[in-house]
Amino acid sequence: MPAPDTAQTLSRGLDVLKLLASSPHSRTPAQLATELGLSRTVVYRLVGTLVEHDLVRRHGDGSVSVSAGALGLTQHVLGSVREATRQILEDLAREAGATAHFCVADGDDVLAVAVVEPPLTTFHVAYRVGARTPRGKGAPGLAIEAAGRGETGLFASEGALVPGAHGIVVALPGLPGPPAAVGVVTLAGLETPAMGDAVRRAAERLRTALH
């Protein structure tokens, strides 16, 4: 129970938000009600308010998850994540000779949180921070889906998201926050087995850095 000098509705809303943020899986209002010991009516009202403020996203199956709007509350945290990943991504981009990226799930999308382009290539694929691609499609989407299931693995795709681009991505299950993945994107035909090895090494470094 909240203390007498706290706002009970706000406290409950924050409990909903924290529960959703702590898991890679979406939840239905009924599941939230059970886990938090609240009535469904209360949870529906709380979820509606959080959706209105773009902190929670509704899915087609009725479940909800934390939305990108919540990132506005954690800009300093995201800055810390970018700093924690930058050196690793810089090393990956240099070693692979391809654009390196760290991405996370945001509802039905994959969101690029940090991107580093290779310093010595004549041509490479541009990829901007904040770019969104469909979850479950292409190497990033498949890796994010695997991370959401608690699975690891390397995924590759060619032309699935952008014609002429080849992606190599490793799932990062078990990190705090939404499902995450790290990978590189290069021009089709320039991919090599060494790139996959470099991404795997970067994934191991990120698991250590972000836990």
Question: What can you tell me about this protein's structure?
Answer:
The protein has 211 residues and is an alpha+beta fold. Helix content is 41%, strand content 22%. It has 6 helices and 8 strands. Strand 1 and strand 2 form a beta hairpin. The radius of gyration is 19 Å and the shape is elongated. The mean pLDDT is 87.
Question: How large is the count of helical segments?
Answer: 6
Give the beta-strand count.
8
Mean pLDDT: 87
H-E order? HHHEEHEEEHEEEH
3D shape: elongated
Stretches where pLDDT is under 50 for at least 5 consecutive residues are none
| Secondary-structure-derived class | alpha+beta
Distance between the termini: 31 Å
Percentage of residues in DSSP E strands: 15-25%
Return Rg in Å.
19 Å
Largest sheet: 6 strands, antiparallel
| Helix share, percent | 40-55%
Condensed summary:
The chain has 211 residues and is of the alpha+beta class.
List the main descriptive attributes of the protein structure presented here:
single chain, about 210 residues, six-stranded antiparallel β-sheet, two-stranded antiparallel ribbon, 6 helices, about 40% helix
Give the helix/strand layout:
Layout: H1 8-21, H2 29-36, H3 40-52, E1 56-58, E2 64-66, H4 75-96, E3 99-106, E4 109-116, E5 132-134, H5 138-148, E6 154-158, E7 165-172, E8 180-187, H6 193-210
Antiparallel strand pairs: 1-2, 3-4, 3-8, 4-5, 6-7, 7-8
Helix pairs in contact: 1-3, 2-3, 4-6
